[in-house]
Amino acid sequence: MPSARPSQLFRNLNAKIASIPMILTAVVVFLGGTIWTVVYSFTNSKLLPRMRWVGFDQYERLWDTNRWLISIENLAIFGVLSLIFSMVIGFLLAALLDQKIRFEDTFRTIFLYPFALSFIVTGLIWQWLLNPDFGVQSVVRSLGFDGFNFDPLYNADIVIYGILIAALWQGTGLVMCLMLAGLRGIDEDIWKAARIDGIPMWKTYLFIVIPMMRPVLITALVIVATGIVKVYDLVVAQTGGGPGIASEVPAKYVYDMMFLSQNLGQGFAASTMMLLTVIIVVVPWAYLEFGGKGKRHG
Amino acid sequence: MKPFKALLTASTFLGAATAASATDLEVTHWWTSGGEAAAVAEFAKAFDASGHKWVDGAIAGGGSTARPIMISRITGGDPMGATQFNHGRQAEELVEAGLVRDLTDLAEAEGWRDVIAAPSLLESCTLDGKIYCVPINIHSWQWLWLSNKAFEDAGIPVPTNWDEFVAAAPKLREAGKVPLAMGGQPWQRKGAFDVLMNALGGKDLTLKVYQDKDAEVAAGPEVAKIFAAAADAREMAEGSNVQDWNQATNMVITDQAGGQIMGDWAQGEFQVAGEVAGEDYTCLPGLGVNEIISTDGDAFYFPVLDDEEQSKAQEDLASVMFNATTQVAFNLKKGSLPIRKDVDLNAANDCMKKGLDILLEGGVVTSVNQLITPDTNTQIEGLMTEFFSDKNITPEDAQARFAEIIASAE
Amino acid sequence: MAEAGLIDHTDAAAGSHSRALEGPRGARPRRVLSRRNIILYGTLFVVAVYYLLPLYVMIVTSLKGMPEIRLGNVFSPPVEITFEPWVKAWATACTGLNCDGLSRGFWNSVRITIPSVVLSIAIASVNGYALANWRFKGANLFFTILIVGAFIPYQVMLYPIVIILREMGIYGTLTGLVLVHSVFGMPILTLLFRNYFTSVPEELFKAARVDGAGFWGIYFKIMLPMSLPIFVVAMILQVTGIWNDFLFGVVYTKPDIYPMTVQLNNIVNSVQGVKEYNVNMAATLLTGLVPLVVYFVSGKLFVRGIAAGAVKG
After folding, report:
1. CA B113, CA B129: separation in Å to the nearest integer?
2. Residue B400: pLDDT band by 50, 70, 90 thresholds?
3. What are the residues whose beta carbons fall under 8 Å from the beta carbon of B62, sequence distance 6 or more?
4. CA of B373: which chain A residue's CA is closest?
5. For C2-29+104-312, which CATH superfamily applies?
6. Least CA distance to B185: which residue of chain C?
């Protein structure tokens, strides 16, 4: 080794060198970009980012805007439901596929293929399927169930559930794949031991396997959560935020403000609020998750 | 800047003669559907004929897609040669920041002001007395399209104005028709509202509200009438479960709906469906009440480039776009009106000719887009979207919110 | 030799790896028509139908002519099958003035996707490995920033990135775009690898250390072969994300390297005029074909028990 003295800096040198891209990305792009955004959220930048200070004006207007409030409410409902459903469905599908079944490849690809389609198209196709005049409703009615009503996209009270159906269809496949990778990491011996002890399968899953899969579950959780916060294209393609403003979401508010209204300041203020919420939720969790247990040191 | 400008002026005069060396010029636009693309092809053809090469950068999705591209390319130091942009106040800031090419010398050399169909077209390209864009067509919003067959089915004569149309609504309902087709997108609803204001309130009211941003007028009795009419429209539009404007137009074409308030681009749909103006459908400019039309439309902007040859090519392109021959070729394909009054449009159909007549008589009102910022525009769009889809919002409440938006508008 | 020792200690892992590639090992008893199997396959079948229904509608629609689509029922099979929409989507649909359909951007997309996927996975897997096994002071701080960064809507970062690329002198180039994709793929991928490597048994790692294997040695000899399923997941994520990206492709490059999604967007998302749903659907399916093939082929690596056995150490 070239360095004679055991300097703090050179300990673990390879790992540090290997982490340079990550450090640069974190500091320059994410931290830098965030600070840039927050700073400009206090200006009245319109089409171009400009330093024209207006204090908290953008934030006052933001919280005065009905559309923003509805967006947040929608995101909350959509977020909670889609988090629960995609995790549960994803896990169940993975568990089913992990039963040494035939045609695993085929089933896996069937559950995963929607993920390959862009949101624009997912939105379009579900817009058709949920259209009361020629989608599911009309088909069921033509089968003789005249009273059948299913038009989520045209009913302001339940439109967000219509979007949820499409989002789950598109996204659960990936969660399933992640869970499957996690299940495949579980040692066969654990199953054998559980079987010898006569523990029923569901109990083995719930009390032994799932706790062991914690890292993968967290990965899945974060992937789903980032997808939820950023949900945009799907809403645009499926409802355009309608009926009225019943299915607006925060990311769409941000985008529309930046590029439709040409009000960058307002868009930045909205995204700063989104980011602030994320930081409040994520940072304490990240501290517990990554900070606490210093498992390995090289 | 000074010597550069002198150079510009000089090259303008030499322009036509030298037609110079071939230069590639990248042009960004969002015209991707059949008729639109065919129209753009006319520009490209004419530009290529001038010895240059049009590099096409078509992106569907309208201004909201083009804006990030344009800003990124300019701030990234690599702008395109020319770009379509909504004119009016949307490009104001780019011009102020000195990022857009000044075309005044070219415009003066070619005498644009003398041949322009309506002065407001060039005005919307002008900032501090300088011209920064080429207007290329005129679209107007103020049209009511009616299905003759739908009224026949309901056993009533085709209305000749908005009030008759409102009165006919119950009969249409009885005959199983939706009186008014209206798509769900915000711009359609805001557009319909502005048309009601133009037609029922008149030019002065529109200007007081949108140009002077007079909040008192916006909260006053005259605008209250417009909101009452909008409430009528809301009732008449109940049952029109479509999103896109052309789906709504299709309801009129297939006689499921009585009528639609939509811009002159709706005409293309009737034509494609093989319908004949006057026989199958009726068009009422200004809703048959107040025959004025607005001069909405499209324009091209030219970012400032360092490369001299490309700058020259930009100028040639601007000149080609304004040229009388290209104007006719382009607008016939696009279904819009040319921006020059010295051209002849024999091929135009009845409705287009009606529009042309109104235009030449000066029945023109400045487009709302040119009066308010996109920000204000979106706020009103939001309000109208809520208003038209939620019957619980009374016209009075909506008007109060409208007045607030106007009061805070820049 | 350290090499030999290393192999000694890890042959269990390597063995299970090669065994794994042979496919599922029938450890659990299986009867063909047991009640369990009926419920299992029954459930899978029903769920599969739900997932396939939209695909069916898309395929059926893409084979119909426009008049038939206007008639209404989206579920009815085509009366007259036509492949014209597929031909049109691939070869003749117009993007502005260029009427050569999706084929125009296909190779651009390939040129963008391959380096972006390889680079982003390479960087992120090493990051994750360093974070899981070679933790250094401050590493978690950067990682937390990265994770929070994953929640920022892309659009917000559009302009700051332009400034960064301009300063680096790679704005408007393929290199710039590849870098952007790597940067935005990094948070999730790093998390993915970090968490997967954390669950690899520590004994294995320690044994290799004792044998004198270093940072890279352990990465290539132990971690990589044991982590095939997670590499597959990473690949699925990246191929899909990058292949389907529209925003970055259009904002950070020029028309001559626009990806295929620009054409897809132009076909599907035209603002005015008649929507040709059959061409839309064909174009969508064509664009989705590449990720689909990747899913199916790489999915073979997903076989059971790759890490199993290694756990014994």
Report:
1. 12
2. very high
3. B30, C271
4. A261
5. MetI-like (1.10.3720.10)
6. C271
